[in-house]
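Chapter review: from sequence to fold.
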Amino acid sequence: MLVNTFPQQTVKYLNQVLGIDAMHATNAGLEAGLPFFLRDAYEIVPAKLLGQKITLACVKGDNALPAKQIEKHVQRLREQLHTPVIVSLPAVAPGERKQLIQHGIAFVVPGHQLYAPQIGVILSERFPIEAKRELALASPATQALLIWFLLHRPVSESWHPFDEAATLGYAAMTATRAVRELLQFGLFELELRGRAKHLKLVGTRRELWQKAKSYLRSPVQRSLWTYDHRILNMSGVRLAGECALAKMTMLNDPEQPMIAMTADVVQVAKQEGIFFEPRGLSDAIEVQVWRYTPAMLDRKETVDPLSLWLSLKESADDRIQMALDEIEENFPW
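The token string follows.
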């Protein structure tokens, strides 16, 4: 009986698409004679698929491995185990799928697709509409890490985003998913150093920004209003909207104060007795609730310029659009 959930899902999916009992997996202990780098990257499952002996190599965790590296791994597995190898992946983007096919790698993504021509099985795939929608825009964590890179990292460095993820309050699993999204969008190339995943910038920082725009959204999730000025002195609060834009450009200050904070800070404010209204109030402070921290820059009273640009890009005000152009031109690319 398999003890790893992902191999279980893979076997179940293959039996669903190929017929009941099409695949039988065993625990034959094949990993013992394999090199550490293969045992570290894959859960090895010996099996019979449609009566033919195969080896199922299930990627551990959310490892984002390039097709060339998978090809080398599969070749080594074939040489040592003397069976066809099918690689099981938790997810695969269209570009990654194309590379896998070009390299002749048999693979399966449980619940989505199967490609194994070596054993007479043709490509079978289905992409849920929901998955396509999720990949159309970067997740908030991915967007935050990308903005952090543009604000803090020099272009010449390869980037290991897991330290920054911890600084921003994200778990390692969230950082792994962010790495996968950035690779899927074609914004970075993967650079492996041992077990560590580094990202190498494709093009210049300005080209990265221009290409990334179509995947980025406004950081503003919703707005609240309050008359309580204690909110201005809370940790993690930054000037936002036209208030921040006026600090960075020649735009005049708006009459109504605008600030940004995360939902967690809103909860802290409520615990301290600050009341919010869900609708606009005259002479009140507009509080933008952000999807990620607005405090990307230390010792700054405003949100960062790139997130500010994203928060105002849909404005129909020509003055604001001209100011946003100024922000882009003055950013230290």
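Two observations follow directly from the output. The chain has three domains: 5-129, 137-215, 220-330. The CA atoms of residues 144 and 292 lie 6 Å apart.
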